[in-house]
Amino acid sequence: MDVTRAWVTLMALSALATALAVFGQGATWAVLAILVAAWIKARVVLRAYLGLAGAPDWSRGFSLVLGLFMLAIMGLSAFT
Amino acid sequence: MSETRVTAIDALPGEFMMWVLIMSELAVFGAGLIVFSAVRLTDLSGFADAQAQLHTVGAGVNTVVLVTSGWLAARAVGLAEKGRVRATRVSLGGAAALGVVFLWIKGAEYADKAAAGINFETHSFFTFYYLLTGFHAAHVIAGLVIFALVAWKCQPRLVETGAQFWHMVDLVWLLLFPVLYLVGRV
């Protein structure tokens, strides 16, 4: 993914998260969807902007740690 | 006959020491967000009331500002590699200008909180809020200084290192924003 396509993806996901925040009606699924959008955005930054797409082993390592972090946040946020 | 060994560290793009910094910063902010999310469970209504005082629209605009700034920084790396010094400086200048916009919006939010009598000790939500966003804003300021230095020298390796730092700042905000501003509100 080139940097401009990454930027478009990040903007689209930010718009999606905003829409979910406005129209989510307090539902747990909306909270989790917002966090999934943040998860995908973080992966886009790591792979496209920070160049980890060209270092697959490091990309997998970062993805694993990021995934564990996001699952912890989602678990703690599901009860809000 | 000479033999070139490619280590795992060599596979990382950019400066290895910047990656050490990125990993340590992500660990600090990540730990802060997990503790924040855990403490919120002890006072859901108090955290929701405190969160309602935040400027979600301003923070949303800041997300767009920082993501766009990151795009300009990433473009600057490609331009520097092509030897286009002027275009690289323009791109870095644009990224830095958006960093200033981010700080201006964040400063307006802090001023609004101060005017409303909200401070570090008002509620534990705000203790986390000021710690996490203040520490992040300090990194934005550091990023602006780094941009000024790498734009002055304008060498591809330095531009890449400066952009790496900025992407870390960008990445941290993308995780801070939903947890501090959106979760618990929707």
From TrEMBL, chain A:
Membrane topology, as annotated: Multi-pass membrane protein
One Pfam family named in its UniProt record: COX4_pro
Keyword terms: Cell membrane, Membrane, Transmembrane, Transmembrane helix
Record-linked InterPro entries: Cyt_c_oxidase_su4_prok
Compartment(s) of residence: Cell membrane
Main subcellular location of this protein, as a coarse class: membrane
Residues passing through the membrane, by range: 62-79
Name of the protein in its database record: Cytochrome C oxidase subunit IV family protein
Lineage per the UniProt record: Bacteria, Pseudomonadati, Pseudomonadota, Alphaproteobacteria, Rhodobacterales
UniProtKB/TrEMBL annotation, chain B:
Heme-copper oxidase subunit III family profile domain sequence ranges: 16-185
Cell location: Cell membrane
Topology of the protein relative to the lipid bilayer: Multi-pass membrane protein
Keyword set includes rRNA-binding: no
Keywords recorded for this protein, A-Z: Membrane, Transmembrane, Transmembrane helix
Transmembrane domains' residue ranges: 16-39, 59-78, 128-152, 164-183
Taxonomic superkingdom: Bacteria
Coiled coil regions, renumbered to chain: none
Signal peptide annotation: none
Family named by the database record: Belongs to the cytochrome c oxidase subunit 3 family.
Name of the featured protein: Cytochrome c oxidase subunit 3
Provenance organism: Maritimibacter dapengensis
